[in-house]
């Protein structure tokens, strides 16, 4: 594999990498890829970089031991088989529509909103608890891509914010991070569909507007929240949203065209977009 031309990357806001092996998240290759962003400022303390990453099939693996890895929605088992079946039926109906090229985008967007809203309603009606989330994650077929921990550590050491932007479930994503990585990162914030639980740990509602696969651009940054440790305290914000919006160099990681909208609202000078197949 030929080395990445860092100088060439510094001078371009769009980069096409012909060799897919360059895009594997492993520390040496990633260090070369992110170098033009991290080193773009003359002064080391003048930091204006950030990473915006999708979660399902981007930070997590698409295939695990020959099986399709589960998403933060798909891994949930409510402890109520009737409602698990109902959610699966919704998936079987709407998922093919999500990737149907003959459906106009505006119509498809309404269908996705309908799917997400119905799914969330079933989670509430079926009595989902936080204990069920923990148990579901423990038994789920989900794993992070090789090098994700090293990636997060690399960015944390340099005070580079990581915004995990997902149409999945924030509380499930946090539990996956907790159980699979066994640590939290002070620079990580999550924009996703966040649940509200009562004192008994039962889901009662969702916070804010619904984020689905085709409207990420409508929610960019405004719904970001610090990682919550479930013990009554947050790790603390890595930055306020106004400051994050001022960061002009972006590394965007995703696996669908809709993920390109995750950086909307930013007046960036340089964006490197990496797609995972």
Automatic annotation (TrEMBL):
Q: Which Gene3D superfamilies match?
A: HAD superfamily/HAD-like (3.40.50.1000), Pyrimidine 5'-nucleotidase (UMPH-1), N-terminal domain (1.10.150.340)
Which GO molecular function annotation, any one, does this entry have?
metal ion binding
For this protein, the Enzyme Commission number is: 3.1.3.5
- Which InterPro entries does this entry report, sorted A to Z? HAD-like_sf (IPR036412), HAD_sf (IPR023214), Pyrimidine_nucleotidase_eu (IPR006434)
Q: Which domain of life is it from?
A: Eukaryota
Catalytic activity line of the entry: a ribonucleoside 5'-phosphate + H2O = a ribonucleoside + phosphate
Q: Write out the entry's keywords from A to Z.
A: Hydrolase, Magnesium, Metal-binding, Nucleotide metabolism, Nucleotide-binding
| A single BP term in Gene Ontology | nucleotide metabolic process
Q: Which family does it belong to?
A: Belongs to the pyrimidine 5'-nucleotidase family.
Q: State the protein's name.
A: 5'-nucleotidase
Species name: Ilex paraguariensis
């Amino acid at each position: 594999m030929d080395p990445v031309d860092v100088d060439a990357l510094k001078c371009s806001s769009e980069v096409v990498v012909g060799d897919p092996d360059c895009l594997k998240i492993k520390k040496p290759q990633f260090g070369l890829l992110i170098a033009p962003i991290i080193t773009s400022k003359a002064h080391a303390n003048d930091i204006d970089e950030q990473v915006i990453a999708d979660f399902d099939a981007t930070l997590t693996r698409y295939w695990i031991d020959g099986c399709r890895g589960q998403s933060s929605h798909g891994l949930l088992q409510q402890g109520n088989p009737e409602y698990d079946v109902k959610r699966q039926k919704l998936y079987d109906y709407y998922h093919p529509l999500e990737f149907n090229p003959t459906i106009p985008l505006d119509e498809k967007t309404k269908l996705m909103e309908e799917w997400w809203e119905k799914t969330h309603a079933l989670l509430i009606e079926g009595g989902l608890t936080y204990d069920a989330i923990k148990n579901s994650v423990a038994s789920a077929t989900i794993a992070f891509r090789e090098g994700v921990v090293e990636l997060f550590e690399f960015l944390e050491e340099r005070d580079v914010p990581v915004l995990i932007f997902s149409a999945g479930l924030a509380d499930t994503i946090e539990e996956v991070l907790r159980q699979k990585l066994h640590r939290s990162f002070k620079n990580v914030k999550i924009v996703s569909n966040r649940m509200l639980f009562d004192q008994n740990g039962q889901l009662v509602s969702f916070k804010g507007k619904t984020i689905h696969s085709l409207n990420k651009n409508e929610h960019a940054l405004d719904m970001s929240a610090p990682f919550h440790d479930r013990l009554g305290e947050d790790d603390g914000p890595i930055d306020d949203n106004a400051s994050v919006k001022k960061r002009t160099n972006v590394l965007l990681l995703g696996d669908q065209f809709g993920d390109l909208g995750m950086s909307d609202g930013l007046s960036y000078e340089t964006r490197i977009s990496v797609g995972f197949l």
